[in-house]
Amino acid sequence: MERKQLEYFLAIAAHGSFTSAAGSLHVSQPSLSYAIRGLEKEIGAPLFRRLGRGVALTPAGEALLPSARRVIQAFARFHTEAQRITQVVSGRLDIMTVTTLAVDPLAPLVGAFRERHPGVELSIVDPENAAAVVSAVRNGECELGLTEHGIAAEGMVVLDLPEQELYAVLPPRTELKPPGPITARQLAALDIVTTPPGTTTRSAVDNVLASAGATTRVAVEVTHRAAIVPLVLAGAGATLLPSRLARDAASRGAVIAPLNPPATRHGVLVFLPTQLSPAAQAFVELVKEWESPARMPRDHNL
């Protein structure tokens, strides 16, 4: 059994297709198929079954999946050990993050990390929900995860990320009376654009309104987070967003206002308490020394 065979196996499992996996690996499909046939012969069982144009794992494939991930991660650690000794970090780093944390603080963290370690290739994916991040790290799908504070993460190392102040984001030409910060009760009287229950964006809105004994008056519920700001700009309703996203919305014409009292949220970085790859360890060290960007002035854009 060779490392290349396991890498090919994991790529097919991830893409659900020999063709897509071959493209991502930059190898020919016949070479990929040949390697998998050799692996199946060595194991003594088929690893994939055909599903139309794609493939799915057989029971033998499902059993191999977690072990294959651990072996490849171990190979990566061994391969980069000498480079770590010479302070040169390379390889690949897989990160899973909820969408709101992908913008802030992950984006600036990744920028700083790439400046220090240009030889590292990063893969950033989003989960079905905040809890799925912990499961993905635990199962070896990724080394590092960014998720919401308060998500159960027993047996994991949990590092707090910088706090993010939440801002009300309102349609263009909205006149606040009185001008200035907006209270939770004022927000409760507005039509809200947000994501479905159980998502991080919706939880932030619901929690702020619950502090005033109010419920969310949802005007538009949208699964695509990227559609929230365009909907607000089109006048469909208001929403709550972290400061960096709120600034971006303001630059496009939205009216933004801080909350009174202020409301914040922050995420966490989670990883297993085992030896990390040099790339993952370097990223963790960056997070530990990272300083939160200065908060937006309280009268910004008002």
From TrEMBL:
One GO MF term: DNA-binding transcription factor activity
Gene Ontology annotations for the cellular component aspect, listed alphabetically: cytosol
Pfam families listed in its UniProt record: HTH_1 (PF00126), LysR_substrate (PF03466)
Keyword annotations of the record: DNA-binding, Transcription, Transcription regulation
InterPro entries per UniProt: HTH-type_LysR_regulators (IPR050950), LysR_HTH_N (IPR000847), LysR_subst-bd (IPR005119), WH-like_DNA-bd_sf (IPR036388), WH_DNA-bd_sf (IPR036390)
Superkingdom as given in the UniProt entry: Bacteria
Organism: Saccharomonospora viridis
Family stated for the protein in its record: Belongs to the LysR transcriptional regulatory family.
Name of the protein in its database record: Transcriptional regulator
Stretches assigned to the HTH lysR-type domain: 1-58
